[in-house]
Amino acid sequence: MALEYVLRRVGVFFVVVWAAATVNFAIPRLSPADPIKEALLKVTSMGAAQAGMDVLTRTFSERFGLDQPVWKQYLNYLVDLAQGNLGFSISFFPARVGEMILVALPWTIVLVGLATLITFALGTVLGAFMAWSHVPGVIRVLAPPLLTLSAIPYYLLGLILIYLFAFVIKAFPLGGGYSVGLTVDWSPPFLVDAAKHAILPALSIVLADLGFWALGMRGMMVTVQGEDFMTLAEAKGLNPGRIFLRYGVRNAVLPQITSLALSMGRVVSGAILVEVVFAYPGVGNLLYQAIRSFDYFVIYGVAFMVIVAIGVATLVLDLLLPALDPRITY
Description:
Blueprint: H1 3-26, H2 35-43, H3 46-64, H4 70-82, H5 97-130, H6 137-149, H7 154-168, H8 188-225, H9 228-235, H10 240-252, H11 254-265, H12 272-277, H13 283-292, H14 296-324
Helix pairs in contact: 1-14, 2-3, 5-8, 5-11, 5-14, 6-8, 7-8, 8-10, 9-10, 11-14, 13-14
């Protein structure tokens, strides 16, 4: 792979990150609400809010640099990002944004990351069988309802699962990441409890995404079956299972891997509405709470992590695809 190509892709990566970070800076400021006032109103009584709100607002605006001109705030924002400094949370001062994200990030990676990998594996296998002439009968029975569930959004599936398995059957908890009173550690009781809390939100993600992966793989398998090498393999009398795995699936799965890389890049943001519905302590729920309270710096931090994650996943994909498939050239 030419060094010029690698440098060009890396350059494009930094340009995309800068442009996305700029949009990330501008969008929260389109709201007419004052984030300092919104935060102070939550912790101040009405009388104090009426008497000294202006003084408190000016003081905290100076502390967070929100009293400066927008262009200076933008330059400070870029410098802080380059240094890895995400600043302090407005709503939860003096908590640092980076520390808040690091607390929430493992929950999202475990929940959404594992759910995405499971969905990818099941959906790819299901889609491959759907396009195969020797498909088992059980696949024909299971495929239609699973594809139908994929038309339902995450959060609606989550509400249905809560009603069925938490209210009616009472087999799983209503929400949260773990039971009240437990200490977050690596002890077996805590891990078992956390896994039990993660089953319903993970199941909602799997059921909602399964059809996407299955239909994508089925479309690629149908395309591959019309290729000359498939016709030649069948004419040579090769075993159908070998044709299916080594000639069909092996070539059809490459676009799926591309989609998986991009999906894993988006895993940082999590399935926001799923985390909100289940009150799951992940990055998606953190971002939702920050948007509700106009917490600029938390919004910046979470959105910037998502930007970088997707950018890195795309960059790695661009560099690895020619190695995975020699037919791909740039």
